[in-house]
């Protein structure tokens, strides 16, 4: 099961060392040597029969003949017979008889002060106390289950190591590191006392710092430039969208105005189509009403006209009005009566008036 609250232990120094090793193949060899990387190594081993010298490089391992430590011993590395050895890292490796190694566990909280804790535990772990040995300690493994850590302690008696170093320095050999033998390689410690450590040039360190800063800036540029470009592109797109939105808004307003005008024009057209014209209605009445018929009343309201008057044949008026394209649904409002004074029929007729100009009803 995934535990999101688990502590992530990240050793920045180990990570940078690994990263640098992965990227080292991209850097020219001369530059690597200038920075102190990829150097050949000249390993010294002080034994009872003399000084054993081994040359380690990318080409492999080469043993150099034994140099007896007497008055005839070489006074510097250049006399070994290979000028390239002058650029190699000089390492003194102590054998099991000259040093000791202890692996033990400590509480996890001791990781922050390994050297100090090892100094306190020296007399318990070794036959010596902290003032009698040169020692170094490093973390091997973290044990989260028990909240402990496994560490490796290496130590060498001060008197023994001082004597070996004084002897080598007197012959012109100045080791840059003191390590312990572990097979064909070392354990990765450095027991070289501060008083014997050579003064290093600050130029490689400054160059390394400058290169690291430059690399950091390049990484930031590579990661940040696309973001800046995307932000710029986003700003341009937003400006275009805003401009297009403004134009779209104007177009929408124009469209709404056009629709409004269309509706208004349509309203007028519909009004004109459906509303009967009073002039047309009166003109049509004069055509459909015969000359012998007289009107003494006319009302027009809500598309409906009511006429009343006298006619020789009132029933024929309905047929004549229905035949017109201006009138429909014509009928008598009241019964027809006969006027005794002149013998004509008194009538009152109602009819719906339509716009005859747009009527599909053919006129007779």
Number of domains: 3
Helix content: 25-40%
**What is the count of DSSP helices, taking H or I runs of 4+ residues?**
7
Give the low-pLDDT segments: 74-81
Number of strands: 14
N/C terminus separation: 98 Å
Provide an overview of this structure:
- The protein has 364 residues and is of the alpha+beta class.
- Helices cover 37% and strands 27% of the residues.
- The strands form 3 sheets. Strands 3-2-1-4-8-9 form a 6-stranded mixed sheet, with no helix packed on it. Strands 10, 11, 12, 13 and 14 form a 5-stranded antiparallel sheet that branches. A 3-stranded antiparallel sheet has the order 5-7-6.
- It starts with 11 loop residues before the first helix and ends in an 11-residue tail after the last strand.
- Residues 74-81 have low confidence and may be disordered.
Write out key terms for the chains shown:
Nucleotidyltransferase, domain 5; 3 domains; 7 helices; 364 residues; alpha+beta; five-stranded antiparallel β-sheet; Gyrase A, domain 2
Give a concise summary.
The protein is of the alpha+beta class.
Secondary structure elements and pairings:
Elements (H helix, E strand, L loop, with lengths): L11 H12 L5 H6 L6 E7 L2 E8 L2 E8 L21 E6 L5 E8 L6 H12 L7 E11 L4 E10 H13 L6 E6 L2 E2 L15 H73 L3 H11 L5 E8 L2 E8 L3 H8 L4 E6 L4 E2 L6 E9 L11
Parallel strand pairs: 1-4, 4-8
Antiparallel strand pairs: 1-2, 2-3, 5-7, 6-7, 8-9, 10-11, 11-14, 12-14, 13-14
């Amino acid at each position: 099961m995934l535990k999101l609250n688990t502590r992530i232990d990240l050793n920045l120094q180990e990570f940078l060392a690994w990263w640098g090793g992965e990227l080292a193949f991209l850097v020219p060899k001369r530059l690597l040597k200038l920075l102190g990387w990829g150097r050949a190594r000249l390993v010294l081993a002080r034994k009872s029969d003399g000084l054993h010298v081994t040359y380690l490089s990318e080409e492999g391992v080469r043993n150099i003949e034994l140099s007896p430590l007497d008055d005839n011993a070489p006074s510097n590395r250049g006399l070994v017979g290979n000028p390239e050895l002058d650029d190699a890292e000089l390492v003194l490796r102590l054998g099991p008889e000259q040093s000791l190694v202890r692996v033990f566990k400590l509480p996890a909280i001791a990781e922050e002060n390994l050297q100090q804790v090892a100094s306190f535990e020296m007399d318990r772990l070794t036959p010596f106390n902290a003032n009698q040995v040169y020692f170094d300690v490093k973390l091997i493994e973290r044990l989260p289950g028990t909240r402990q850590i496994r560490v490796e302690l290496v130590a060498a008696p001060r008197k023994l190591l001082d004597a070996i170093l004084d002897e080598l320095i007197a012959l012109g050999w100045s080791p840059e590191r003191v390590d312990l033998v572990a097979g064909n390689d070392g354990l990765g410690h450095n027991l070289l006392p501060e008083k014997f450590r050579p003064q290093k040039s600050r130029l490689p360190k400054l160059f390394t710092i400058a290169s690291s800063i430059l690399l950091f800036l390049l990484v930031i540029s590579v990661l940040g430039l696309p973001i800046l470009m995307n932000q710029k592109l986003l700003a341009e797109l937003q400006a275009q969208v805003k401009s297009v939105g403004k134009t779209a808004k104007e177009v929408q307003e124009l469209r709404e105005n056009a629709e409004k005008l269309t509706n208004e024009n349509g309203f007028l057209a519909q009004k004109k189509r459906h509303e009967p014209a009073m002039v047309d209605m009166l003109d049509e009445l004069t055509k459909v009403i015969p000359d012998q018929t007289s009107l003494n009343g006319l009302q027009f309201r809500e598309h409906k006209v009511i006429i009343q008057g006298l006619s020789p044949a009132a029933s024929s008026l309905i047929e004549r009005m229905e035949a017109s394209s201006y009138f429909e649904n014509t009928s008598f409002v009241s019964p027809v009566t006969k006027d005794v004074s002149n013998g004509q029929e008194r009538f009152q007729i109602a009819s719906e008036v339509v716009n005859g100009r747009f009527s599909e009803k053919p006129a007779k």
